Amino acid sequence: MAERGVALELAGVSAGYGETVVIENVDLTLSAGDTLSIVGRNGVGKTTLLATLMGHTTLHAGRILLDGIDIARWSVHRRVRHGLGFVPQEREIFSSLTVRENLAVAARPGHWTLASVFDLFPRLAERQAGRGDELSGGEQQMLAIGRALVGNPGVLLMDEPSEGLAPVIVEELVRAVRRLAATQGLTMILVEQNARLALALAPRTIVMDRGRIVHDGESAVLRDDPATLERLFGVAGR
Amino acid sequence: MAATDEIAVAARARRFLAAHARLRPTEALPWLVAVAAFFVFPDRLTFGSQVLVMALFALSLDLVLGYAGILTLGHAAFFGIGAYTVGLLAARLDWTEPLTGLLAAATCAGFAGALSGVVLLRYRGLTLLVLTLSTTFILQEFGNVFDRVTGGYDGLPGLSFSPVLGVFDYDLFGRTAYLYALAVLFVCFCLARAIVVSPFGRSLVGIRENTARMHSIGAPVHGRLLVAYTVSAALAGVAGALHAHTNAFVTLSVFDFENSAGVLVMLILGGTGRLYGAFWGAVVYMVLQDSLAKFSPAFWQAGVGLLLIVTVLFARAGILGLVEAAGRRLRGGGP
User: What value, to the nearest 5°, has the Cα angle with vertex A86 and ends A33 and A181?
Assistant: First the structure.
């Protein structure tokens, strides 16, 4: 079996906002094609970790290697052009652009095209001429994921993709995320408040607390160990 | 291989956006009105050519303000550079051919836009407003200090230009000036329209709505704003050159704050980010200004001010916004 290369590596990363340090001494390695969930209580640094990968925070220490290249001092758009994709918690759809235009402004060469995004989310295909501000929350989330995908990232970061969505929409998203996970070479990091969903979506889960990684292991093991989950996360499989 | 892919994706994106940016029948209306005005108001064509010049100026502002969200109070700088380019070429170098004059004006104003944009576009909001305004004041004072070249506050009167295309000489009734201004406006509108419906133009809208998000989808935001600012400056330069061609004089008043503010008011009246808002805004503003000035030469600005207040209170999307809302109501799409 061919060994997969390292897609993303964080070494001793400390970062925050201005002088304030939010995440501290984070080490993390993901191989190409890995899917990882990050869970933890509110305010422990999950979103800040994604923001640090994207270059939205102040890096105080450490290295961030994407495909072996240190991107820690790169601008946001250069990181994205090198292979990072980001689905923000707030979705941030361009409200006056249509669904198609939202995708077209982000499109770059690669496996993911507008057609393949519409294949992944048929609901978007139906609404492709609709403006961003006419979409429901679920459709906006699908569009936010689609917009990140058409940039053809090697590493896709998703911040709370299920937040505020109806259960039926969450099911549709779960199906889409599973399809993405099966996409050869796509590495994914999901930050998720819903621990049950997070453990179900990724084979590997890390738990964060007060800016540090306090657990890194197989999701299945954690899922079958409510006591550990309770200790680390505060709720038993919420 | 990667370069080939880039070209293929760009071509696909352009094809898609072109298909979704087909001409609507209503887009013919302003041009039909402009052509009809030529026949209906034959004794008002000089005024009409000034309206068309200001429509082009407002269009140039719409590219940066309406689409890219760049707040500026200094667009008169580029208008003035364009006007002085053709004025100085004609007065000092006897270069009076109008079309090459337009190209020279676009080049000089575009260069000034690129040069100033590298610095100015790093700022936003109030800082940018003050910086753009200051740049215009500096240019105006620069023109005053070098009065031997620019003519100072007396400007460059009595300019003479060659016939358009070597055939159509300027006449006393302003027929040539009107049709010349209309043709240039039409070409510039086509260019601006092609820009705003392109993926580049759509990305400007994205930058206006959410700059941070555009960074996060890999767009080089500063570079795109700089390109938009440069193109807009070049178009403003063309408007300034047309102003000089159709008036046959240039003074430093082209750099006045009133010029920058006036074009902003026109755009707000017509509706920003709509292209044709520039056209209708210029028409309404200029006709109102002309009518009110006849009625009360001292207080015409009060009438324009009142209309502006009404617009920002009750029709924030301008005249075209009102028309669009009415159209949605008629189609049963709600308010």
Answer: 25
